[in-house]
Known about the structure:
The chain is of the alpha/beta class. The chain has 9 helices and 8 strands. An 8-stranded mixed β-sheet has the order 2-1-3-4-6-5-8-7, with helices on both faces. Strand 5 (165-170), helix 6 and strand 6 (191-196) form a beta-alpha-beta unit. Helix 1 packs across helix 6 and helix 5 packs antiparallel against helix 8. The longest helix has 17 residues, at 17-33. The chain starts with 16 loop residues before the first helix and ends with a helix. The mean pLDDT is 96. Bound molecules: iron/sulfur cluster. Iron/sulfur cluster is lined by residues 11-12, 15, 17, 50, 120, 124, 199-202.
Amino acid sequence: MELSTKAKITWCPGCPNATILVAYRNAITELVNEGKLNVENLVSAAGIGCHGKITDYLNTNTFEALHGRVVSSATGIKMANPNLNVVTFTGDGDSLSEGFTHLLHAAERNVGISVFLHNNETFALTTGQATFLSPKGFKGPSTPAGSVDEPMNPLHIMLAMGATFVARTYALNIPGTKNIMKAAMQHKGFAFVEIIQPCITYFDTREHYNSSTEWLPEDFPRTDLSAAINKVREIKEKTTLGIFYQVQKPTFEEKI
Ligand code: SF4
């Protein structure tokens, strides 16, 4: 199975988008080898932003959406053929600024798609403007004196909207990211994964995250919504990674 294409990689050399690509290819390979995925039934969709180039480098069915419209496009793909495994790549600019309401509705409806959000905390493709996930004080072309806003918490929002699978991982941890992708792709319902993805050109957070992440304990009560909300709202030195919440509920396509 060849999952690569001949397209030239045009991400900045060393960009962690590439490690997300590797983790995803590894996840597909393992799921196929385990008999859990038929690659002919896999659709990889992406929006606009640096993350969006990922579909150029994937030899799967792919779909490139307009800015902020990838989650609604993926919803349409899933509705047209519920047998497809639909994986949606997006960015903090793409789906938490431009296409925010599409993301909210897909979570609330429990559409059976996976959403992998590359969170680089900036609009990287357009040279580093602030997004709703940029930290307070973030300096870029649109906030030269520093952003005055506190960043949104995407996992808290997804839990509040009713997402049935909510997780976070770190792009430079390829095995950990691969495992979470596999779990999300096998989840029946709406799966949201925040992937912390430093932009090494406009907001290089590698030094911070390389030493300040920790995994949820194995015995974390993953079906307890209150526990998940409290955990994702925690403010502490280390950023927690792992699957915070996973439950089964009827999906949008089943209800339709
Ligand atoms: Fe990666 Fe940032 Fe370069 Fe975009 S601008 S390819 S996110 S390093």
